[in-house]
TrEMBL record:
InterPro entries: ARM-like (IPR011989), ARM-type_fold (IPR016024)
Protein name as catalogued: HEAT repeat domain-containing protein
Gene3D superfamilies named in the record: Leucine-rich Repeat Variant
Organism of provenance: Caldilineaceae bacterium SB0664_bin_27
């Protein structure tokens, strides 16, 4: 099917949905695939989900059936549309929705995995008690894709969770601080923690990370969380953790600490630079001072 670029796909898609031609509707959707990800643009997929919601009605059995059909198709774009629709409909069939999200969280397509994590975030936000045992199970799943989905979805949902719910999620994610898979590690410290939990519950995160194991990956993740932009908005509860990490002698941890301190120094120099200056004669932390001075001293900032 030729790619439609003039918006006419919406009329064709709606017509197929109205007559119950799901396979044909998916073919129309696939006509909008891009070369970048092999799926339609996000705006197209969200528009397709709106057309389906408008036709069947929000939260109806008809919409649920259509969403599961899309999620179960071979089309990755249709799978993503199905995930958008199923996130809010967890209550229709919790076990089936959970199974669909699990299957797609382990997709070979990175973009589908992102949409699966987003669907899980929606479920965590709206059905915490029901989905929490699943999140706890996925945090130790054999697949790194699924473990990563548990971390990213939890961090993204943190802003809509209570403090106690965030505490439960953080404790559940504790094993992932030491996870040796690159995909999990890349998404844990700077993103799930620093970009999610830190914004929602900075004091809780500071306490949790200060109790992390001495494993180098755990300490690396803690330092990477402090490299996130949000750390500059809550330095006070994180100051003790920063002090602790600055004394770590392991190369990987040191590099993460340097990144965190430089980011903080650029964002809130008036708060960070005097603290770094105080480490100048500290045998355990003078290396941080030396590194920051080398990177920023030439500009007269230290």
């Amino acid at each position: 099917m030729a790619t439609r670029t003039d918006g006419s796909w919406k009329g064709d898609f709606a017509a197929e949905i109205e007559r119950g031609g799901w396979a044909e509707a998916i073919a129309v959707l696939d006509s909008q695939k891009t070369g970048h990800a092999g799926t339609p643009r996000q705006a197209v997929k969200l528009q397709a989900a709106k057309i389906m919601s408008r036709h069947y009605g929000e939260g109806t059995a008809g919409l649920y059936d259509a969403a599961t059909a899309f999620a179960g198709s071979e089309s990755e774009g249709a799978q993503e549309v199905g995930l958008v629709l199923l996130g809010p409909m967890f209550g229709h069939n919790p076990a089936n929705v959970t199974d669909i999200i699990l299957r797609l969280a382990d997709s070979e397509n990175w973009e589908v995995r992102e949409w699966a994590a987003s669907a899980l975030r929606r479920v965590i936000s709206e059905n915490f008690a029901a989905i929490f045992p699943t999140v706890r199970e996925w945090a130790t799943h054999a697949s790194p894709n699924v473990r990563r989905a548990a971390a990213v979805a939890s961090g993204s949902a943190a802003g809509s969770c209570t403090e106690e719910e965030c505490r439960m999620l953080l404790e559940t994610l504790t094993p992932l601080l030491e996870d040796d898979d690159p995909y999990v590690r890349k998404n844990m410290g700077a993103f799930a923690i620093g970009g999610g939990f830190l914004k929602a519950q900075p004091a809780l995160v500071a306490d949790w990370l200060s109790r992390a194991s001495d494993h180098p990956r755990a300490q690396w993740n803690a330092a990477m969380a402090l490299s996130a932009a949000e750390a500059a908005n809550c330095l006070e509860p994180l100051s003790g953790l920063l002090e602790q990490l600055a004394a770590d002698e392991r190369t990987a941890v040191r590099r993460a600490v340097y990144r965190a301190v430089l980011n903080l120094a650029k964002r809130i120099p008036e708060e960070v630079l005097p603290r770094i200056e105080g480490w100048k004669d500290d045998p355990a932390r003078c290396h941080v001072y030396a590194h920051v001075k080398e990177k920023m001293g030439a500009s007269g900032n230290l």
